Amino acid sequence: MDLTLIQNLSLSYISSFALRCAVDLDISGRIQAYGRPMPLNELARSIPMPPEKDSMLGRLMTLLVHQGVFGQSEDGYQLTPASELLLTDGCNLGAYVRLFTQSQSMNDWNRLSEVFKDTGNCTLFEKTHDGKKAWEILKEMPSSGNRFNEAMASQSNSIMRGFVARCSNIFDGLNSLVDVGGGTGTAVKIIAEAFPGLKCTLFDLPHVVENALKSDSFDVIGGDMFEKIPPANAIFLKKVLHDWGDEDCVRILKKCKEALESSKNGGKVIVIDIVIDLENNDTKAVETSLLYDISMMSIHGSKERNKQEWHDIILGAGYSGYKIYPVQLGVNSVIEVYP
Ligand SMILES: C[S@@+](CC[C@H](N)C(=O)[O-])C[C@H]1O[C@@H](n2cnc3c(N)ncnc32)[C@H](O)[C@@H]1O
Predict the structure, then answer these.
(1) CA 289 to each of CA 54, 242, 293: distance values in angstroms, whole numbers, following the listed order
(2) Is the peptide bond before 50 cis (omega within 30 degrees of 0)?
(3) Catalytic residue among 66, 242, 300, 311
(4) Helix (H) or strand (E) holding 219
(5) For this structure, is 311 an active site residue?
(6) Spans of all domains in the chain
(7) DSSP characters for 93-152?
(8) Ligand 1 centroid distance, CA of 164 (Å)
(9) Mutate which of 179, 204, 210 to test ligand 1's pocket (most atoms within 8 Å of Cβ)?
């Protein structure tokens, strides 16, 4: 068992790259287009690839079926809810898979132990990118910025449909909402379309909103959330606070509070982010949260937070209270924060 654990963890990067291979070969799209369970030879001919490689493809599929990414019946391979997320005419989560399996990532992660020995606060990302922060690189290199925004949009697609369906009462009584750090607008568009009476605004850095989705359903404002956030009676912060350390989160939350207060109507901040719960019986969810935590530590020098850490930054920013919704959106929780 102990040996298996170490062997499994040593090889687990292969899971990431097997998934990446399935994305690059668009296996989900091919099974969808086939319209019924797809035999191996049909899948292979659709790629197309030399017939002598069919057994290689079969072995790749055996792993991915075992992991639950694809299903299999006597008649062939099938989509599962997981592989449906990869469909390019659906959530297109393949963009997210590509972001995390970039060729440079492996070289960078190889240097993680060096960061522990360094003095100072340089993150793994800064160490492997000439001291630059991730946001600087995304601004300076439009191709990286586009890849990142596309990945965030695909993640938004997969989270937001469930959010508006399962948490619609969060929007009761609201008349305006600003999605702060909303990227190119996937989330705010889904909210605006689900709640047409709500005046929605996308707010992100100017060079990010330049590439915002074109839509009449929301306004677009470029700016810096550390300076001023446009007024509204709901501020939406999805996957933003985990990018920042506690002091910066308190600064952002204080700016959100100013924006709520200047809209006169009270309101709330709606946060979607991970709440780490080591007691959760879903061990896959706990492990995924912890993997995100190491990722945030290494990219931004930030973190995923447990209940106590959320409590501390929320009350530290002067809010009167908060409620963690009994809803899980993948590994993400929904936190309603009251001024
Ligand atoms: C992890 S992404 C999340 C994007 C989006 N909320 C989502 O869930 O897909 C964080 C976002 O924060 C934005 N951001 C970073 N610094 C910012 C700042 N100072 N002011 C406004 N937005 C900022 C980034 O451009 C990026 O779009």
Answers:
(1) 36, 11, 6
(2) no
(3) 242
(4) strand 218-222
(5) no
(6) 2-90, 159-338
(7) THHHHHHHT-HHHHHHHTTHHHHHHSSS---HHHHHTTT--HHHHHHH-HHHHHHHHHHH
(8) 20
(9) 204
Quick check: 241 and 296 in contact, CB under 8 A?
no
Question: Ligand 1: distance of its center to the CA of 156 in Å?
Answer: 12
> End-to-end distance of the chain based on CA atoms, in angstroms?
50
CATH class entry, domain 159-338: alpha beta
Mutation test residue for ligand 1: of 205, 229, 242, the one with most atoms within 8 Å of CB: 205
Per-residue pLDDT of the chain (339 residues; tens, 9 = 90+): 899 999 999 999 999 999 999 999 999 999 999 999 999 999 999 999 999 999 999 999 999 999 999 999 999 999 999 999 999 998 999 999 999 998 788 889 999 999 999 998 899 999 999 999 999 999 999 999 999 999 999 999 999 989 999 999 999 999 999 999 999 999 999 999 999 999 999 999 999 999 999 999 999 999 999 999 999 999 999 999 999 999 999 999 999 999 998 776 679 999 999 999 999 999 999 999 999 999 999 999 999 999 999 999 999 999 999 999 988 999 999 999 999
Protein residue with least CA distance to atom 13, ligand 1? 181
Q: DSSP letter at 80?
A: -
Has domain 2-90 been given CATH number 1.10.10.10? yes
Query: What CA–CA distance (Å, rounded) separates 59 from 61?
Result: 5
